[in-house]
Amino acid sequence: MRMFGSLSARQTGRSCALVLAAAVVLTLTYLAACSPSDSYGSTGTKAIRFGKLWDGTGRVLKDAVVIIEGDRILDVSTGRFPFDEAAEVVDLSEYTGVPGLIDVHTHMTYYWDQTPGTNPWEQAGSMSPAVTVFLAQENARKTLEAGVTAVRDLGAFDPNSCVRMDIAMRDLINRGAMVGPRMFVSGYGLLATFAPTYPGQVSPGWGRADGVAEVKRVVREQIAAGADVIKMFASTGSASDLTGYQTFTFEEIKAAVDVTQNMGKRIAVHSYGPDAARDAVRAGANSIEHAIDLDDETMAEMARRKVFYVPTIDHNRYYADNREDYGYSEEIEAQLRAFVERNLETARRARTAGVKFAMGSDALFTMFGENTRELDWFVKAGMTPEEALIAATINGAALLGMEEELGKVAPGYYADIVAVKGDPLADIKVVINNVEWVMKGGDVVVDQRR
């Protein structure tokens, strides 16, 4: 993602309450014409039949039947099951079922309408938070269509506005006023000062922190605002900037980790290079995002401490493939592709070292719908298709602290289930390309069966 500085200064001074109210009004007006209950059915007792089911526990069940009551899984069995005759039966016997996938690194509120002549970054900075939240429903829909039923959203932009748009989206989805994946959000990421302020800007800006005391204050502020997770930008690097210079000291990172975890939350540390990642692992962070060229000692410590690695390899492939949309030169494209190779090599070494992986796309703008392409890179890094699926289900749930409710098709878990055409344990591209049907919380949110 890109770290916004003064781009949105023109939005300063707007009333937070009015902006949030406008976002809700826009969304509810839209949904009055297209209610989720009209399109996706109601929650009740359902019996779902699969030809095969990979349940996330290591089992593959043939002729599986999943019984769902409300938004939870009641029972999982095989063959004929004496379910209630009044239950709604969904025959997916031509498909393989897998748990709903989890993308642990997205930026859902980064929206671009692809109007010719516009630049994604510039357009995003020119729209009000209310309009952005409304339009970002498209990103949420595409995410569901990729089979992703839960995301960890690591940063809304516009640090000069008091509206944390990802928190607004999460709350709208949770109350049923917007259709989208479960969102676990960070609000604004912690940023060290990297640009001067200008007249009219909020200073130091939401999320900006310098020094241990400021870091502690901003972490508390984000959690008080409703953040589920803390995001810390501990190095440079985003978009066309492939540098990885450390921006926070070890002491500042440790302060952020300590306050976050003492308040019962988890922290993700952005580090394009190895230095900030090394300090973040030493400080006890829950996950490291992006980092390349990690040394063997750091990897061993990650494995020992069970720090998750979220390499987001596909993110820079996306920028390279779409360089003209972003105005990037051929030289920048070559640099992006070189970074991808270093990212992949680091992932290979991390897997060998026993580091735990979670799937994170770093999706933004037009990358939504491509969230699961990261799994193909995991297989290229040496994982089996099943290991890649574990990264996108069980491990993702564990990183969210939701391992007893998400990531498996098992009794008591949320009824988040995906049906794919083919065998994902033989070819991971089945999960990437052949999602046909998606259920979230007992409701069918995607049905593309022919």
Helix content: 25-40%
C-alpha geometry: globular
The largest β sheet comes out as: 7 strands, mixed
Number of domains: 2
The residue-averaged pLDDT reads 89
Number of strands: 14
* Class computed from helices, strands and strand pairing: alpha/beta
Strand order of the largest sheet: 3-2-1-4-12-13-14
Rounded Rg: 21 Å
CATH class of the largest domain: Alpha Beta
**Terminal Cα separation, in Å?**
36 Å
Proportion of residues in extended strands: 15-25%
How many distinct helices?
17
CATH architecture classification of the largest domain: Alpha-Beta Barrel
CATH topology of the largest domain: TIM Barrel
Task: Look at the structure and name the CATH superfamily of the largest domain.
Answer: Metal-dependent hydrolases
What are the segments in which pLDDT stays under 50 over at least 5 consecutive residues?
3-43
